[in-house]
Amino acid sequence: MTVSRPGGERIGAGAAAAVVAEVRAAGGTVVATGGCFDLLHAGHVATLEAARQLGDCLVVCLNSDASVAGLKGPDRPVVPHGDRSRLLAALSCVDAVMIFDEPTPDAALTWLRPDVWVKGGDYATGGGEPALPEAELLRRWGGHTVVVPYLNGRSTTDMIAAARADGVGGRRTGAGVDGVTRGAR
Predict the structure, then answer these.
(1) Are 5 and 89 in contact (CB under 8 A)?
(2) N or C: less crowded end of the chain, CB within 10 Å?
(3) Is the dihedral of CA 100, 69, 137, 114 positive or negative?
(4) How far is it, in rounded angstroms, from Cα 32 to Cα 113?
(5) Smallest Cα–Cα separation from 57: which of 13, 116, 8, 9?
(6) Could you list the residue ranges forming a coiled coil in this record (predicted)?
(7) 3-class SS at 37?
């Protein structure tokens, strides 16, 4: 299913509502995921691409700047939510982005009522149904949670710590998405 985006708008509750309504009207599956997505990296993109494959649309619930600061500390986010939302919306696997101010996406999820809530494999517990805090909420309307494979070695917090350790303008070496180690140039 191809989701149409009137006027190309993909950010905000209105954009999310339009996408969800279109998919539901066609009998499709609504998938949502959420997070801070501060310093978008390959691990984020892999999670988003995998999430989109699970349904007919993907809505990203994005923590606002205030929400990120409350969760991660006063030095975060590095990238403001206006920029983070535009970066996410530019990805072909993302159909809409909505920003929420609370510490958890519970209110956004209750409003969206997605069929599937997806998180990256860093949330995996090794058991059956993922132990995501949102699982109970989704069960209220028949939704379920899925944990998709995690791309090891990708962490915004680690990236920020490495950048601070290197100082301004430092360049890290490390494995690329293909696993090939590259050095500084």
Answers:
(1) no
(2) C
(3) positive
(4) 9
(5) 116
(6) none
(7) coil
In Å, how far from its chain's centre is CA 30? 14
CA distance 10 to 60: 10
Domain 6-170: assigned CATH number: 3.40.50.620
DSSP state of 14: H
The 3-class SS string of 35-74 reads ECCCCCCHHHHHHHHHHHCCCCEEEEEEECHHHHHHHHCC
Give the predicted TM-score (pTM) of the model.
Answer: 0.81
The one-letter code for the residue type at 152 is: N
Helix (H) or strand (E) holding 99: strand 96-100
Structure token pair of residue 84 = 């983070």
The mean pLDDT values, 10 residues at a time, for the chain of 185 residues are 63 96 98 93 91 98 96 91 95 97 95 95 55 89 91 66 65 44 38
